[in-house]
Write a structure and sequence with these properties.
37% helix, 36% strand, alpha/beta, 5 strands, five-stranded mixed sheet, Transcription Regulator spoIIAA
Amino acid sequence: MIITDTTSSDSDGSSSLALSGRFDAHEADGFRAAVDPLVEAGTSSIDVGLSDVEFIDSTALAELVRLMKRCREIGGDLRLRAPSDPVRVILELTRLDAAFEIV
């Protein structure tokens, strides 16, 4: 997984980042290292772009759920932006498409 873009807005406490490639157990630590400082700095709403992610596994899904919970704890939310077809299929099979806001 490569984080291809990160944008933060201090005015509304939101950030966005775009991922590409594989998002799996090998990439979970890197993802956590990128997003945890955002939440700790007060970012409550995060958009994660998934249009260029070609594969996602259960560890990556767990990281997204963990991040969603952290955002909600501080009054925000996690939005998944434009998941690729393979990611969308996994979200639907796991029924996580109902848990996340997908835009």
